Amino acid sequence: MAYQTKRDPLFDSDMQAALEKRGKELIGLVLLGFGLMLAAVLYSYAPQDPSWFSASDAPVQNWLGLFGASISAPVIMVIGIGGWAIAVLSVIWGLRFGLHLADEAPVGRLVFAPVFVVLMSVYGGALNTSESWPHAFGLGGLFGDTVLGALIGISPLSVAGSLKVAALVLGPAMVALGLFVAGITRVEMRLAFRWLLIAIVLTYAFIAKLLGRGAVGAVSVAGHATRSAGEGLRARAEARAERRRDARLTAPAAADPAWAEDPWGAQDDEPLYYDETPAPEEKPGLLGRLPGLVRRPEPQPQSWDQMDDDEVLMALGEEELPGDDRIRAKIADVVRARARRGEPISAEEGPEMEDVPLSAIQAAARRAKRRSPAPLIFSGDRAAAPDHGLPPEPPLTAAAAAPTPRLGGADPRHAGLSYPDEAPMAALDDDMGHAELAQSEMPAPELVDAGQLRVERGVPSIPPAPEFRDDDDDEHYDFAAPEELPAEPRSMGFTEGAKIPVAEPRKVVQHSTRKPVQPSARAQAEAQPSLAFDPAEAEYELPPLSLLTSPETIQRHHLSDEALEQNARMLESVLDDYGVKGEIVSVRPGPVVTMYELEPAPGLKASRVIGLADDIARSMSALSARVSTVPGRSVIGIELPNDNREMVVLRELLAARDFGDSHMKLPLALGKDIGGEPVIANLAKMPHLLIAGTTGSGKSVAINTMILSLLYRLTPEDCRLIMIDPKMLELSVYDGIPHLLSPVVTDPKKAVVALKWVVQEMEERYRKMSKMGVRNIDGYNGRVADALKKGEMFSRTVQTGFDEETGDPIFETEEIQPEKMPYIVVIVDEMADLMMVAGKEIEACIQRLAQMARASGIHLIMATQRPSVDVITGTIKANFPTRISFQVTSKIDSRTILGEMGAEQLLGMGDMLYMAGGAKITRCHGPFVSDEEVEEVVSNLKAYGPPEYIGGVVEGPDDEKSADIDAVLGLNTGGNTNGEDALYDQAVAIVIKDRKCSTSYIQRKLAIGYNKAARLVEQMEDEGVVSAANHVGKREVLVPEQ
Fold first, then answer.
1. Which of 180, 349, 809, 931 is the most buried if burial means most Cβ atoms within 10 Å?
2. 998-1033 burial, b for 16+ CB within 10 Å, e for fewer?
């Protein structure tokens, strides 16, 4: 018995194919549902929702509830926008499987899906985040920032350059890989490109055709309508006027019944229009109806106002009605003949506008409709149009004041509309006045699209003419040239649906277009969580930004545009009350103040507006107002404080790229300007800073922010500090940090010693740099870095003398140990106290350092709360071009520190005026740093060990070096009984040489004061150089002549 070794398939081939199709469709539905669900979860993500990383009692905002929040939070945190790559791929492959468009081997493409997700995440990390992004990491999540940080670390370019290169490289790579993973083939790409190109071409052709047809048709119809309406109305008016003149002259004969049967009498009443072609309808033609119209005064049943819109347009579109030329020539001949005879015409002969038969208009409309385009659509309100004919006009007299009735009845929508040219046009004669006004007041259709045009159906009214003037105007008037008529724009009646253009009010509010503050590389690195694999710590690390207050806790306040516009108009009114003519052209809101830019009227002095600062503040109910000119512009800036002031925090400035990624040697975070942009200054370029402000203005807080700026950027090997605090309260908290060269100096006498040591250090550094042949500290430190890298010593060949036998010079090689010179920043919190104790010595030291310390890397930051001329002398101001003024009490103090007014108008609490380089003045708002933040930063720095103090900073140098320093500073001009005073020796030499000695003589010779000369003479008398004064005041020189 034989058994079958191979089993038959469970299903046949058709069933297997059907199951395979249904299986792919099921997979497609699953992928499509998953992709849409993930997209909904990511789109509705809210950081406040409870998740694996945060617990909150707030209601869940995610569309999928708590489940969606638990999924979206880790996806956003880990891969950021890379999660959208998963959703998009799922939807695309779901559609491809469901529509049976998938490749035979989709696995070969889907295997690169993780790479696509990684590329999108890293690319998101290279993008700039917006203000709405709530996290500290970038758009690529923690993974994207980590990979991007590693790539930037190995890149030889700068951080900004590396980010740009990464974005340029990753973008195209991500798009190309995404198309490959999504299964897009070349055929599909070509097909999509072809359909896209066809759609663009068809759209362009359709728009061009639509615009071309609408514009050409509108122009054609508008031209025909204007010309035909003007010629027809003018011809009718001329014919009626001539007919009435003839009727007046033949009135007695016309009363005879036999006159009515005279064929010559009927010939005078020749109709205006006639039709040479047979009428298409059985109704009477134009020639048959016009005589009846002339002889019968009652109106016809139908009038112009009762016609259909299309018929009116087509009737006006006729270029010339039959017989028009013959009638016009006859009218012209009759008018000229009567003008030559000089026959008077009474004022009772007013024109009478009568209706034209509807049959003639309809016949002309049908002829014009067959050859005229119809791009315009007349959609007037037919139901609202009055349904009656033209009433007969009463006879006009010279004293008539009532206007003539409008064609088609009086339309209440036209009430109140004026015709500015009525008066001059009314001066024409009766006949021509109505013809000209009828043409000039015809509304011309606008050249707009046919689907949007709405035209008023009513005909404008014809103003009355006061009387007929018998002059030769008719002889000079060309009836065949309607284009020469005046074409001034006139007021016309529009329908309620028509849009009348109204000038929109100009917006003056200009919000700052600044980008959000971009975090520096260090801030981004600190925002990313890191794992401490290596427990070994570095010798010194910069303090973390987390020790400072986060800017996310600050409440932002913004005024609406309507409130700013209202304030601008109110300010214009206030200025107008004080006689200042101008216009507010721009409003720039900021975090603390809002600047209103005033464009003054020609001839208005800026000093006049600046002097009104206090009055403006009172009228605007503001605490203060600062008025100043805007450099480089013709406007005057008026700065008013906001109702709700926004606090500026230091962390936001230290985390900015302008601070962290800049190449400044000594960066200082000063604050934010009026527009909210960070203001970062370089102390190395200043090179010294003078700060002034009253108590409570934020001066001490600003010094703390400057110190923290240096501590957050520079290590003790790069920068050392000397702090002098006579108040013993402000800077003592920094005692013990590694950056100090000496303990915080609180004694004013030791402060003088410390400043003299700084002068000595400056002289020593100058000698070192001169030996190396460099110009500044940067060049010296560059040489030191190169020598240390090569392991070499500085060597210098110097000549020490000459050989006694040969006379040749002797040279020796001097080796110098390369040592890096750190920057030294001297911070003096209160200069007024030092000037009271030792003003002369302090001023001499400051003057010497301010003049020469820049190249040696020594910089001064000096502050005072009494900016008077005895503290801030002219010598100090001349050597401190960079100054900062906080709120002061008077305009005099503002002029002392800045050279102009304005500091007395500041708000206090960090509001400052920053003058860089003695030129441009910028208003800044300093950041706030609490005492707790300063203590946390100091505690973090103290953890790295005690500072390395340098001896002699507060102890003072030895006597020999002290004498040299005093000689450099010019401080050894007092009387010295040991003979070491150079001035005394000079005075003795003069007395011995000239054999004269008197106080006035010594004063003139040495150019010194009287008191000092008297002390020198008394000292010479005590030492026996001269004798005492005799009875006449002369002294004898006791030292023999040399």
1. 349
2. bbebbbeebebeeebbebbbebbbeeebbeeeeeee
One-character DSSP codes across 15-71: HHHHHHHHHHHHHHHHHHHHHHHHHHHHHT--TTS--SS----SPP-STTHHHHHHH
Tokens, residue 1017: 């003479």
The three-class DSSP label of residue 589 is strand
Asked whether the predicted pLDDT for residue 1010 surpasses 50, the reply is: yes
List CB contacts of 672: < 8 A, sequence separation 6 or more: 590, 591, 648, 653, 678, 679, 924, 925, 927
Strand partners, 797: 813
Closest CA to 455 of 444, 464, 463, 465: 444
Measure the CA angle with vertex 314, ends 308 and 319; round to 5°: 150
- Binding site feature residues: 693-700
Per-residue b/e over 129-144, b at no fewer than 16 CB within 10 Å?
Answer: beeeeeebbbbbbbbb
Distance CA 879, CA 849 (A): 9
> Is residue 610 packed enough to be buried (19+ CB in 10 Å), middle (13-18) or exposed (0-12)?
middle
Amino acid at 391: P
d(CA 276, CA 322): 7
Q: Which of the listed CATH numbers 3.30.1330.130, 3.40.50.2020, 1.10.540.10, 1.10.10.10 matches domain 973-1042?
A: 1.10.10.10
pLDDT tens for 793-817 read 777 776 777 777 787 787 777 777 8
CATH of 555-646, one of 3.30.980.40, 3.40.50.880, 3.40.50.450, 3.40.50.10490: 3.30.980.40
Inform me whether the pLDDT recorded for 653 exceeds 80. yes
Task: List, for residues 457-482, the tens digit of each pLDDT value.
Answer: 334 444 444 444 444 444 444 434 44
Q: How far, in Å, CA of 485 to CA of 482, rounded?
A: 6
β-pairing, 626-629 vs 823-828, is unpaired
Query: Which of 493, 496, 490 lies closest to 441, judged by CA?
Result: 490
**Selection from 893, 920, 926, 922 nearest residue 907 by Cα:** 926
Alpha-carbon torsion 100, 106, 109, 114, what sign? positive
Binding residues for ATP: 693-700
Q: What architecture does CATH give domain 648-777+815-965?
A: 3-Layer(aba) Sandwich (3.40)
Does the reported pTM lie above 0.70? no
- In 3D space, the residue among 459, 457, 453 whose CA is nearest the CA of residue 376 turns out to be 453
Residues in the chain: 1042
Whether the pLDDT of residue 79 is over 80: the answer is: yes
Of the candidates 817, 758, 814, 732, which has an alpha carbon nearest to the alpha carbon of residue 783? 817
Closest CA to 859 of 871, 877, 873, 846: 846
What are the structural domain ranges in the chain?
13-184, 218-252+265-384+445-494, 555-646, 648-777+815-965, 778-814, 973-1042
For 118, other C-beta atoms within 10 Å of its C-beta total 19
Phi, psi of 678 (to 5 degrees): -65, 140
Buried b (16+ CB within 10 A) or exposed e, 796-825: eeeeeeeeeeeeeeeeeeeeeebeebbbbb
Backbone torsion region of residue 696, taken as left when φ is above 0, otherwise alpha when ψ lies between -120 and 50, otherwise beta = left
- Which residues, at least 6 apart from 47, have a Cβ–Cβ distance to it below 8 Å? 54, 73, 134, 135
Taking residues 345-367, what's their average pLDDT? 46
Q: How far is CA 448 from CA 204, 225, 229, 460, 767, in A?
A: 19, 16, 21, 22, 84
Structure tokens at 93: 């492959």
Q: Are 953 and 722 in contact (CB under 8 A)?
A: yes
Q: What pLDDT shows up at residue 470?
A: 42
Which pLDDT tens digit goes with each residue over 202-249? 888 888 877 765 555 655 655 666 666 667 667 776 777 777 666 665
* Amino acid (one-letter) located at 645: R
